[in-house]
Structures are given as C-alpha cells and as structure tokens.
C-alpha cells in the first residue's frame, strides 16, 4: 500500500524537477537540495575547523613554541570553535532535518521553502566574513569562542565582522528553526500524532524551540559588545555601572542551551538507529520524549555552571550546582533506554550501528566528566583546564559528530540509492574510535595535573599527554578521508556503485522514509500518506 | 608542578580545603566509574550475547513504567550523596571571615601584582627572564633544560604557614584568574570588581599555579608562585621588604595607586587613572641623564614591552608593530607618551607604571636600534596624565 | 490514496525556485561589510551600504509582492495559512527573546552590579578598594561617572503621551480588523490610516525626546549604564515601531488595492500581531525604564 503510494508520487514529479547548473543550487526551494547543500557546507566547515585544530595540536605536540605566534594560536582556538559549532555541527543537523523531517512525517517539503533557501545561503556568506578576518591586519578574533569582554574588545579590524557574522548565523538558525517547528506542527501526515513521531523529529522539534529562544539572546549579547566598543555604552564596564560578568551571564544563557542544541538531534539519531539494528522497538518511547523535554527545560536554568569562578554569591553557586546535577537524571533515562533497547534484541553491527554504539559509550563518558564539572567546589580545580576541554570534546566529537556520521551512513543509501562500502565504513569507525580516544582521553590527565586551556605552550611535565593527544588528532583527521571517499563514491556512483537498492534499505528500519524509493525522488509525499502501525516509530499500540 | 603533584590527577594539596576537594573529586570519580561499569557492562553483555548470530529472534518488550521510575529515582539518590558533601565544602570555601592577613592580587596583561594590605609592601610578579627567553617562537632553547619552564616567577608571593590569608582579587585590564592547584584556590580577577577567597596553608613549600582565564596573547605566560614560609621566616621576610628593599628595579613603586583599577574602556580609564604626583615631582627634580634613562629604560622595556615588541624592537607584525624607525617612536614625544598611557588596540595602557619608568622606557626606545629621537623626562609624562 | 486529479487543488503550495533569498543575502552582506568598514575606519566608503540597502529593500518588496500575488491568486490553502500563523508566532517569540537580553541587562545592572559596586552583599571590598565613596542609586552612570552629570526623562510626560498613543493605536488596529471581518472596507482603511498616523506620531515624539536628551539633559549612550540601557531598549523598540509602521502602511495600501478577504487575511493579522507585540514591549519599557 504505502509502496504503491510512493511510486504514485514518483509518477508525476517531473512537472517541476530540478533546474540545471549552478542556478539550481542558488534558487532551489527543495528540502532535499537544501539538505544536500547544508551537508556539503557543514562538511567543508568540519574540514576547515579540523585543519585549525591540527594547527593547535601541532603547536602543542611538544612544549616550546615551534610554529605559530601565541596571538595566532589564540585566533586558531577561537575560530576552530566558532567554525565547528556554528559552521559544522549546527548546519549538519539542519541539513539532516531538511532531508529527513519531511520524509519522516510525510509531507512534501518544509513549510517555508523560500525561507529555507535564505537560511542556508546566509551561512556561506557569514562564514566568508568570519574567515576573511584571518587575512586582515591584526588577524582574526582571538578572545575565545566565548567572546568575553573586556578582552574581546581589544580585537582589531576583525571585530565588527565577528559580530555581524554572529548576527547572520543567528538569522539563519532562527529562520531554520521556525521552519522546522512549523513543519512539524502543521504538516504531519494523517495518523502521525505527536507521540507517533520518530524521535529524530521530536528531538529536532525541541531543539528548534531552544534555538528560537536563545539565538536572539546571543544576538543581543554581541550587539552590546558592538555598542560598548563603538558607541560608548558601558554594559560590560564597571566604571559606568556595568559588569564584565554580565556578558557571561547573557552569553551562557544562550551557551548552555546551545550545547544541548548540539546534542538533542544526536539523541534522536541514535534513538532511530539502535532500534533498527537491534530489530526491536525503542524501549520507553514516551519516557524518551519526556526526558528530552526535561533536558531542554533544565538547560535554561544551569547556565552559570560555566562561571563558578567569577565570584557569584554562594546561593547562586549552590543553585546552579544542584540544577546542573539534575540534568544527569533525564540523560541517564535516555542512556538506560538505549541499553534496554539493545537488551535481548537481535543485533547486527553495520557502520551506522557501530557509530551509534560508539556514541553511547563515549558520550556517556563525556557526561560523567560533565557531572564532575557540575560540582562547584571541585570545578574550581577543573575550570579552564584541559579537563574541561576533554569533557566537551567527548560530548561533541564522539557525541555530536559521531551521530552525524552515523546518520549519514544510515541514510545515504536512501539519498543516493547507492550503498556505501561496508568494509571501509567499519575501518573508518574503528580508526575514528581509537584515535578520538587517543586524542581526548589523555587531556583529562593533563587537565587534572594542572594544564590550563587556551595556551600555546606548557610546562614540560605535560609533554607525554600532549604528544598522545596530537598523534590522535592527526590520526583522526586522516581517518576522515576514508569517510569522504566512501560517501562521495555513493553520491557520484564511483567504483561502479549501482543504484539498486530496495525501498527499505535496512530490514529492521521503520518509518515513512523507507516507503519511498531509493534514491528518494525529488518530490516525495506531495499527497500525505497514511501512517500505518507497521511504520510507526512511537510506542506500539497496546494490542501488540 | 611540585612534589605533591601526581602528574595525572589533582594534587591532594596542602590545605584542609584542598584535601576535602580532592576527596570529593575521587568520590564522584568512583561513583561515575561504578555507574559506568554497570551501564557499559550491560551494553557489552548485550552486544556479545544478543547479536543476531547468537540471538536470532528479538524479544518484543518495549516499555515498563516500573523500570523507568527506578532508573529515574536511583540516579537522583546517588546525586544527593554527591550534593550534600559538595555543598558543605563549598560553604566552607566561601567563608572569608576572620582572616589573619589580606593580600590584594591584581592581574595585568600579563603579570600579577601583589599588595600586602596594611604592610606597605607591594610588587609585581612576572615570568622569569630565563623562561621568557626560551618561550619565544623558534627560540632554539631546549625548554626541557629550563628549570621550572613557564611556572617560575621573579618575585613569588610569600605567605606564612598556618595563617588564614584572605585574597582580594581584581584586575587592571581584562579578566584573569588566579589559580594555585595545591591550595585549591581559583578565582577570576575582574576589572572593576573585587573577589574574595581565602586559604590557610599547612606546609611550608613552593606552590605553583597559572593564570586560568584567557587574557590575550600571553595568557600562557603569567604564572603564579606561592612560597609558604614558617611564621618566623615570613616575619623577617616582611620586615626586610618594609626596609625599602624593593624586589626588582621595575616594580619599585610602592604606594603606586593601583587601587584605581582602570576600567576597560578608554573613556573609563581616562577618569580612573590617577598620577602618583609625588613620585613624579621627585623624579623631575633630579632630571636623570640620557644614559641613565636609557639604562633604566632597557630593564623597564624587557619587563613590560619585549614580549610583544621583542628585545630588538622589531615587533611581530602585524599585531605588534616594529618600533625600529616607527613614526610613533621617532615622532612627537607627546603622541608616544599618550599611547603608553592609554594603550591602543592590542596594546594595553601602561598608566600603572611610574612617570620615571615611562620616561625611561620611552627614552630607551627613542635611542635604540638606530632610532635617534631625543629624550623624555618624567615631567613630560606627568604633563600628559 | 486519492486520484491524481485531486492533487493539485488540495496540495500544500510549494513555491518554484526563487532567487530572492540569495539576492537578499547579498544585499545584507554588502550592508554589513560597509558598516564594518565604517566602524573600523577602513577606506571602502559608504557605497556598499547604500547599494546593499537598496538591493535588500527592493528584494523584500518583490518578495512580499510575490507572496501577496500568490495569496490573492488563491494558491494558499488553509494549511498554508496555518503555516504563516505559526511562523509569525514564533518569529515574534524570537523578538521577545531579543528584547529579553536587554531587559535582562537592565535587571542585572539595577539589582546586581550597581549594588555590588556600592558595596552590597559579598562585594564590600569592591566598593572600599576600587570605588570608595560610590553609592548605588538609580539612575546611575556608574562609579566613574561616565558622560558626566545627566538628567532623566520623567515618565509622566512625553513617555506617558507615547504610551497613550500606542495604546490608542492598538485600539484603532483592532477596529480596523473588525471592519475588515465585516467587509466594511472604507472604515477599515480609515482605521488603518489612523493607526499609521499614530505610529508616526509616536516616532516623532521619540525623536524629539532623543534630541532633548542629547541637547538639554546630557543624557547620551555614554551616560554609563543608565544611558546604555535607556538608549538600547528604547532605540531597538523605536526601530521596531518604524518597521511596524512601514508594514502597517503596506497593509493599508494593499487594502486600498482591494486585497484581503473578510474570511482570510493573514497578512493583515500578522502585522496586527506584530504591532501588538511592539505595544506590549513599550508597556514594559514604560514601566521599568521610565517609571520605576
Ligand atoms: C554537546 C555538548 C555538551 C553536552 C551534552 C554537555 C553535557 C553536560 N555538561 Fe558540558 N560543556 C560543553 C558541552 C556539552 N556539555 C561545552 C562545549 C563546554 C565548555 C564551553 C567552554 O567553556 O568553552 C562545557 C562545559 C561544562 C561545564 C563548565 C566547566 C567549566 O568551564 O568549568 C560544566 C559544569 O557543570 C558542564 C556540565 C555538563 C553536564 C552536567 C552535562 C550533562 O548533560 C551530562 C549528562 C550525562 C551523563 C551524566 C551521563 C549519562 C547518565 C547516566 C549513565 C545516568 C547516571 C549518572 C549519574 C547519576 C552520574 N559542562
Ligand atoms: C563541535 C565542536 C568541535 C569539534 C568537532 C572539535 C574537534 C576537535 N577539536 Fe576542538 N574545540 C571546540 C569544539 C570542537 N572541537 C570548542 C568549543 C573549543 C573551545 C574553544 C575556546 O577555548 O574558545 C575547542 C578547543 C579545542 C582545543 C583547545 C584549544 C585551546 O584551549 O587552546 C583543542 C586542543 O587540542 C581542540 C582539538 C580538537 C581536535 C583535535 C578536534 C578533532 O576532532 C577535529 C577533527 C574533526 C574533523 C576532521 C571533522 C570530522 C567530521 C566529519 C568528517 C563529519 C562529516 C560531516 C558531514 C558528512 C556533514 N579543540
Ligand atoms: Cu592572565 Cu590569563
Ligand atoms: Cu553548560
């Protein structure tokens, strides 16, 4: 039935198929085209951000300054983070949402296709502006991605470009998020009640709310930086009655939800992949939804755990410690549910599953260190050391980035109609897993032993940890080329890869996206399909 | 850095607080390890035994409210077991009452200033010259051979053992953070605000720390050294300091008005920086010779300017311009004086230096590396304040 | 599954490819580059700003013209209408959060940072060692007295008048809405012109107020934290009023061209929502910025 429908949709989509050449990509309003653009953009940014991290790791390989000036080092740290977060992870998730949300909820496109195009095309320009500062007099911004004043106000010519680039990224994120919210609320196929939606859709819905709530706050914060620098205001200077710490409050009010923006879609991806390869329904679907919502809610009241050392009143320190610790509870529920999903399943370990499992292990390790950081008196020792760097890379790289990689492996057969190469996929996984741990595990030790972050050079007793970390970083970077070639080969049909895949590429997969042909036609679900119990990813009906 | 440092873990430290913190740290760590063993154990079990080859037919359970409640409640209880001792320690740490003495710590780009309140002892503390030379880009020095590379200073902070010392921490320019792991003290130095924290060191020794908040180019090069002395030794050290024997040439500016922390923006610093009139007047009366100025200027330069503009004055363009033949250095002195007082772009203001030091260092730059642009006296500097 | 013939009428409207968004981005980026150059005194001159702004305005105009045409052409079904409603709601919510950042700054300054500078709570040492003698009061330009002595604008003066103006405009636009729903086009247009006029009047008074503040009261952006929060909050609000007034104007002109139907007129409603939002923000401003 569903199958027949999909072919039906295929039948009359030629009336407005893609245009040809570059204009297709500039003018496209198609969610699949835009998803592709987002993913290629994110890919490029991951590459650039990765190169910057290699500059960092090369300089830190051994003590002493070998390659770059300290100022340039700080520029690399700052730009690495901005590029990875705003250029890599976030656009990658938006790209996945573009591709998959309409296919998962059974609608023809995102609700606002032209706005979708706008949201995408802002990004290359925003990052063009940001990266161009590397070539300016005085160089790129070097005050850290957190942009704390007064330091960031010492930035030279790059300063307004930094601010405006952030504004533009904000516009892009907000428009994208509104689009996702509206699509999910307004365009679901018949039968797709909220509690039948795939978890990826759920997590994105909640992520989109977070984005709409906090990106404007970031815009406000950087606007105040701009006026403090050029228009005599004194939000962040004590002399005028302001406070540099006020910026940190506003920034982290954005910044903490931001880190969940980078992890909730990842949770959704993992919650999609694990049931497929365990051949079992997701355990505790409803509790997964509630846990996601709780995490999002809590994320608004924990921001000051990034600022325990600024000298807050004791009551504040206690409150933010307790609130932060609470996040471990709903996150734990998620982890336990994943484990219960695997429990007594019938698992196979294709590449997407490997990355999803890697995610569960390594994200949890990052979560544990997060919990340690939440303990205020001990955070005084951890804060601004490599222990923190280790924490957030564990949740970001084998966390967010692994989930993106897993998602690409999982859905690329659907996108291109060509399977990736399983051998190279597995090789990619094992190399990535080994090298990422080699990169970031030793950083825990360096941090505990006293190595502070954001320094180009260090005392000699940290040498061993840093040598390992740098070797790991180079190894990880190189391993990603396997991925690039494997994916491009599927995109372009290299090595004689044929488009001969069934609609349901993974036998255990559920969901509407698996009812359309592989590759998915340019237009899918122009007429909404009926969701059947077999394709429902929500909690199965009690009758079962 | 020190004897008690383990190299892979937090130091136990030498204060009651630092030991409590260490215990807490290990407590949370082991809790995480145990939870990890359970969770990962279950996962690995499942990966090994519930793979398709071993377990071809998947079970079909998919929810259980009881289980969900259990694994919501259990972590909650565990968290309480962490939160209670953590709160107790935190409350102790924040209790700065009844201190025996107070030291005011001021962060500068990129050095620390210590002021023993009520004792008339105050001085700067900077990275040692040896480390500083070795840390330059492609210096060619084997840093492994430099003793205490990057964690040694010219003038350590000297503290008595067994006394409750209160620190007032603030900054003169951007945010820094004063951190010494062995005493578990890390507090941000915020321009325009003062943070308080305390310690009571139990063992004599040398404890090293670093600036722990990104503060610009040389953030990695403003270490902290605390030397804890038995009370009697400390007393004699203090007496010696009061005897007027200044720790170094460049920081012989006791009584300098660092209280007026310049606010970060230029407008604010104008209002806030106040000249040490007496010092200036005294210096002006003597009007040192060019040679004396250049000689003194050289050491001021090494301590304050060389990090960016380099010992040979060529700077590190484009961020740090060369002073050789620079239009500012060879042009009208007033412009150069103002730039030193107020800063420009990345260059921080140096208004905290005395008029005499500024005059000396300006004269030095005007008469070195082929520059030949006359001398500047302390009175000229005072006139621009 | 429905027969193929049924598709075209009740399908969700998906627009054809469009170059507007890309061109709009180019325009915005040109403006941004121009402004950055101006702020950092580089020599690229004002040309990018003017060209970029002109391009952006032209594109926005064309884009909305296109939407109006599609709407009048009957391409939008009920579902598209719902899309616009949701989207407008969440857009306004994002604007609320933007203002929240500045309200938060005001709150922080008044309740936390100024009292701290005055030595309250754990920050006694801040006052004694850094800012001796400073007493936290509101309004304040901080312990360094940035910008010198200044006076504030009394709430129950022009601001009160402005409050009344905006409240009235909220009333007039509601009247216009009722008229539209009852298909009384002429009164609707009249109420709309009244609303536009009130918006413009508000802006006129606000501009006067700014001139007065700068010239007579020595109240400027540089007047410490009071001047900062005052001008940023009222300034961003004023920008929103400007935008709102322009949108009202466009809607009025469209009404005069015969657009909108009594039963479907989301363009009108969206602008009305926006206008109410601007109104509510002003009430907040009046209370916490001018009055308290
Ligand atoms: C994807 C991003 C991401 C995620 C998901 C998290 C998750 C968490 N983070 Fe992290 N964090 C960052 C990204 C992220 N963080 C970044 C980027 C920074 C640094 C920013 C900067 O300064 O530049 C940072 C910094 C940071 C700090 C500040 C450190 C400092 O600067 O001093 C703190 C402090 O509380 C913290 C805490 C936490 C906690 C408690 C979680 C929790 O959500 C984790 C919860 C998960 C678990 C606990 C594991 C699974 C749970 C169980 C198996 C249940 C049972 C467990 C227990 C009862 C223990 N993080
Ligand atoms: C998502 C965010 C993200 C990611 C992915 C990374 C990735 C890496 N980071 Fe990152 N890093 C940050 C966020 C991130 N980092 C942040 C926020 C900071 C703090 C900055 C500050 O202090 O201000 C930081 C700081 C930071 C430091 C500390 C610098 C300092 O304190 O001075 C170091 C040092 O080793 C480091 C190293 C690395 C390395 C080796 C990687 C490697 O993992 C990089 C290799 C990765 C790739 C090559 C990309 C691979 C991805 C793909 C291939 C996916 C494909 C995509 C699609 C199909 C769309 N980073
Ligand atoms: Cu001072 Cu970092
Ligand atoms: Cu956080």
TrEMBL record, chain A:
KW Transmembrane helix (keyword) present: yes
The organism's place on the tree of life at top rank: Bacteria
GO cellular-component term (any): respiratory chain complex IV
Compartment(s): Cell membrane; Membrane
EC number(s) given by UniProt: 7.1.1.9
Entry's transmembrane regions: 37-58, 78-97, 118-138, 158-187, 199-226, 259-277, 289-306, 318-340, 352-375, 387-409, 429-451, 471-495
GO terms for biological process, alphabetical: electron transport coupled proton transport; oxidative phosphorylation; respiratory electron transport chain
InterPro entries reported in the protein's UniProt record: Cyt_c_oxase-like_su1_dom, Cyt_c_oxase-like_su1_sf, Cyt_C_Oxase_1, Cyt_c_Oxase_su1_BS, Cyt_c_oxase_su1_dom, Cyt_c_oxidase_su1_bac
Topological category with respect to the lipid bilayer: Multi-pass membrane protein
One Pfam family hit: COX1
SUPFAM superfamilies: Cytochrome c oxidase subunit I-like
Gene Ontology MF term list: cytochrome-c oxidase activity; heme binding; metal ion binding
Keyword Magnesium: no
Keywords: Cell membrane, Copper, Electron transport, Heme, Iron, Membrane, Metal-binding, Respiratory chain, Translocase, Transmembrane, Transmembrane helix, Transport
Domain Cytochrome oxidase subunit I profile, chain residue ranges per copy: 19-532
Signal peptide boundaries: none
PROSITE patterns the UniProt entry points to: COX1, COX1_CUB
Job of this protein: Cytochrome c oxidase is the component of the respiratory chain that catalyzes the reduction of oxygen to water. Subunits 1-3 form the functional core of the enzyme complex. CO I is the catalytic subunit of the enzyme. Electrons originating in cytochrome c are transferred via the copper A center of subunit 2 and heme A of subunit 1 to the bimetallic center formed by heme A3 and copper B.
Family according to the record: Belongs to the heme-copper respiratory oxidase family.
Protein name: Cytochrome c oxidase subunit 1
Source organism per UniProt: Sinimarinibacterium flocculans
UniProtKB/TrEMBL annotation, chain C:
Keywords tagged on the record: Membrane, Translocase, Transmembrane, Transmembrane helix
CDD domains linked to this entry: Cyt_c_Oxidase_III
Primary localization class, coarse: membrane
EC numbers, comma separated: 7.1.1.9
One of the Pfam families matching this protein, by short name: COX3
Domain spans labelled Heme-copper oxidase subunit III family profile: 8-292
Bilayer topology annotation: Multi-pass membrane protein
One of the record's GO cellular component terms: plasma membrane
Source domain of life: Bacteria
GO molecular function annotation: cytochrome-c oxidase activity
Record's subcellular location: Cell membrane; Membrane
A GO BP entry: aerobic electron transport chain
Transmembrane stretches, start-end: 20-39, 45-64, 84-109, 158-176, 188-205, 225-251, 272-291
Enzyme class, first EC level, given as a word: translocase
Family: Belongs to the cytochrome c oxidase subunit 3 family.
Protein name in UniProt: cytochrome-c oxidase
Organism: Sinimarinibacterium flocculans
